[in-house]
Design a protein that fits this description.
This protein is of the alpha/beta class. It has helices at 37-48, 64-71, 79-90, 129-139, 143-151, 164-176, 181-200, 220-230, 243-253; strands spanning 2-9, 13-20, 25-32, 53-60, 75-76, 96-100, 105-111, 114-121, 210-213, 234-235, 272-278, 287-293, 296-301. The protein has a 5-stranded mixed sheet. Helix 3 (79-90) packs across helix 9 and helix 6 runs antiparallel to helix 7. It is globular, with a radius of gyration of 21 Å.
């Protein structure tokens, strides 16, 4: 079957998706990165492996360059483009895309199926999935339980959410005062939504249909608070957690290639490693990343002048 592969490598998760010629999702994988993007991508590829004739492969996410060399990508695109393409294709008429991932948050405004405006928060993790992960650890619960517990809250508790340090301090203070766990969790959901709307979405015209995607879209507590704050209905697509990977696959499909550079699913069993060194040939002192496949250097990047990356 003719198909297209997309890989989205982030700080918290690495995802893969295979779509057919019509854009239908044939297979998907959501894998925790755990600081090992190469191993995470290899695991995701094994999970989506099938009898497909891959005609195009694309990568996106913060680790898109690494993943591109890893799988043999035909296109390497940023997250804004990938998430927008996926949402526009799978949710016809979408006007606003809200995306909260593990490392960053973003909002994308769409007009007539074209990205009209966007914004990202990459400075602080207070409004992201990693923030929620950290608080789950402190509260002794699983992230999967977070949203349902928030919906059980009967009392509103305000938690500072602009900074992770202040949020943790405030949360500990509320615990010491005897606040119930579900009320604290609801307060954290409100804090995340407040931080997102006051920073990432500030000044943006949020119109329906609104699509909410990214790993945090699994959290019912966040969805409830977002709808309450906006006063509008939010749609969570079926494959919300891998929309970036789907977008990367769709972008590869648009290339209309006769033959893809994709190395094949068997590359998941290949030995890859990375290392870095500092180039001291000029005052820039660039940190150059070296990527090896079966002990052989196949790519370098990170230099400003191109001395190493063009070789």
């Amino acid at each position: 079957m003719t198909a297209y592969l997309g890989i989205d490598v982030g700080s918290v998760s690495s995802n893969a998706a295979v779509v057919d010629a019509s854009g239908k999702v044939l297979a998907k994988a959501y894998v925790r990165t755990h600081g090992q993007p190469i191993e995470a991508v290899k695991k995701a590829l094994k999970m989506v492996k099938g009898d497909y004739d891959i005609k195009g492969a694309g990568t996106t996410g913060s680790g898109r360059v690494l993943a591109g060399f890893l799988v043999g990508a035909d296109t390497v695109k940023n997250e804004i483009t990938a998430h927008a393409v996926a949402a526009i294709t799978l949710v016809p008429g979408v006007k606003t895309i809200l995306e909260i991932g593990g490392q960053d948050s973003k909002i994308i405004v769409v007009n007539d199926n074209v990205v009209n405006d966007f914004a990202m928060n990459t400075v602080c993790a207070a409004g992201t999935g990693s923030f929620l992960d950290q608080q789950c650890g402190r509260l002794g619960i699983k992230i999967e339980e977070f949203g349902d517990l928030a919906l059980k809250s009967k009392t509103k508790i305000s938690i500072a959410g602009r900074c992770t340090v202040f949020a943790e301090s405030d949360m500990i203070h509320k615990q010491q005062l005897g606040a119930r766990r579900e009320d604290i969790i609801r307060g954290l959901c409100e804090a995340l939504v407040r931080n997102y709307l006051n920073n990432v979405a500030k000044g943006k015209h949020i119109e329906e249909p609104i699509v909410f995607q990214g790993g945090v879209a699994a959290n019912q507590g966040i969805i409830a608070e977002m709808e309450k704050s906006l006063g509008k209905k939010i749609t969570v697509p079926e494959n919300f957690e891998v929309m970036g990977a789907i977008g990367a696959a769709l972008l590869a499909k648009e290339l209309n290639l006769e033959k893809s550079k994709f190395k094949g699913f068997e590359m998941a069993d290949t030995d890859f490693e990375t290392s870095a060194f500092e180039c001291e040939d000029c005052a820039n002192n660039c940190e150059v990343v070296e990527f090896k496949e079966n002990k052989e250097v196949i790519a370098r990047w990170g230099d400003r002048c191109g001395k190493w990356s063009r070789n």
